[in-house]
Specification:
InterPro entries: Glyas_Bleomycin-R_OHBP_Dase, Glyas_Fos-R_dOase_dom
Organism: Pedobacter paludis
Pfam families: Glyoxalase
Number of helices: 3
Distance between the termini: 37 Å
CATH architecture of the largest domain: Roll
CATH superfamily of the largest domain: 2,3-Dihydroxybiphenyl 1,2-Dioxygenase, domain 1
Protein name: Glyoxalase
Domain Glyoxalase/fosfomycin resistance/dioxygenase: 7-124
CATH topology of the largest domain: 2,3-Dihydroxybiphenyl 1,2-Dioxygenase, domain 1
Shape: globular
Structural class: alpha/beta
Largest sheet: 4 strands, mixed
Strand order of the largest sheet: 1-4-3-2
Strand content: 35-45%
């Protein structure tokens, strides 16, 4: 059996989300697009994250979405090759309109930072020491 996995996240404004991830340099997925959905490819293996308009995703899930102001749904990790690359990510995220809630620093054998996109979805950028 061949299995493929991807993520589906809810967003308030599909166009704003599209602009944010485009500014960060992520590649648009050539898959399905609409006013209800934008999609990007992450990493060397092109992990797909679909960003659905919140109401559309709630309908498909038959339930409520996580309140990202109260907690986390998931945190995606992105690898970096150098500490300078981590620092560059922090600058790019701020310029694109994201929130760097954990500034670049050394911790637990890594160097990294963490950010939230405009809807509160969390990512960290990590360079293993």
């Amino acid at each position: 059996m061949k299995v493929q996995i991807w993520a589906n996240l809810g967003v308030k404004d599909v166009k704003k989300t599209e602009a944010f991830y485009s500014k960060l340099g992520f590649k648009k997925n050539t898959g399905p697009e609409s006013e209800e959905l934008t999609s990007f490819l992450f990493g060397e293996k092109d992990f797909v994250i679909h960003f659905f308009k919140e109401d559309s995703l709630k309908n498909g899930m038959k339930g409520e979405l996580a309140d990202l102001k109260q907690g986390n749904e998931v945190m995606f990790s992105i690898s970096a090759e150098t500490e300078a690359e981590v620092n560059d990510w922090a600058v790019k995220v701020k310029e694109a309109g994201g929130n760097v809630f954990s500034q670049p620093e050394s911790f637990q054998g890594m160097y990294g930072c963490a950010f939230a996109d405009p809807d509160g979805h969390k990512f960290n950028i990590l360079k293993w020491k």
